[in-house]
From TrEMBL:
PANTHER family, A to Z: FI23927P1-RELATED, PKSB
Lineage: Eukaryota, Metazoa, Ecdysozoa, Arthropoda, Hexapoda
Keywords: Oxidoreductase
Keyword Transcription regulation assigned: no
PROSITE patterns: ADH_SHORT
GO molecular function: oxidoreductase activity, acting on the CH-OH group of donors, NAD or NADP as acceptor
Gene Ontology cellular component annotations, sorted alphabetically: lipid droplet
Name of the molecule in the record: Oxidoreductase
Species the sequence originates in: Pseudolycoriella hygida
InterPro entries: NAD(P)-bd_dom_sf (IPR036291), Sc_DH/Rdtase_CS (IPR020904), SDR_fam (IPR002347)
């Protein structure tokens, strides 16, 4: 595998599941995908970044890390963990003299692409309505 200079942790599942709902297995799965896997992936790449004296680790959290969503307690908690992981990793890199490895946490807000979330979530803030822009107009994938 080629050296990795930029890591974007974007894995996550968004179940509308309150703490009282769902089985222990469902809760474990959400935690496994949304945070445990992120820890394992993230710890794999910084050693090479440190060796090359460059790199960037990006964690995709959620605005729910700061403003938890009623009916999505587990999801909100895992996204708060992701945000805190990136803050702590950045501080760790700085304290170890590896400030050339940058760490960024992104906290996107909800875009109404999933009707089930829009209909069941109890958000404190208004939605950003998705107007149907196709991904080919806002994304470019380089498969070479």
């Amino acid at each position: 595998m080629s050296p990795v200079d930029i890591l974007v942790n974007n894995a996550g599942i968004v179940p509308m599941l309150s703490l009282r709902e769902g089985s222990g297995q469902e809760i474990d799965r959400i935690i496994q995908v949304n945070i445990t896997a992120q820890f394992h992936v993230t710890r794999t790449f910084p050693p090479g970044m440190i060796e090359r004296k460059r790199g960037h680790v990006v964690g995709i959290a959620s605005i729910s890390a700061l403003h938890p969503v009623s009916g999505a307690v587990i999801y909100s908690s895992t996204k708060a963990a992701m945000n805190n992981m990136m803050i702590a990793l950045s501080e760790e890199m700085r304290q170890e003299g590896n400030e050339f490895v940058k760490c960024t946490s992104i906290l996107p807000y909800l875009v109404t692409t999933r009707k089930d979330i829009v209909e069941t979530a109890n958000f404190r803030f208004p939605f950003i309505y998705f107007t149907g822009i196709h991904s080919q107009h806002c994304c470019r994938w380089d498969t070479s």
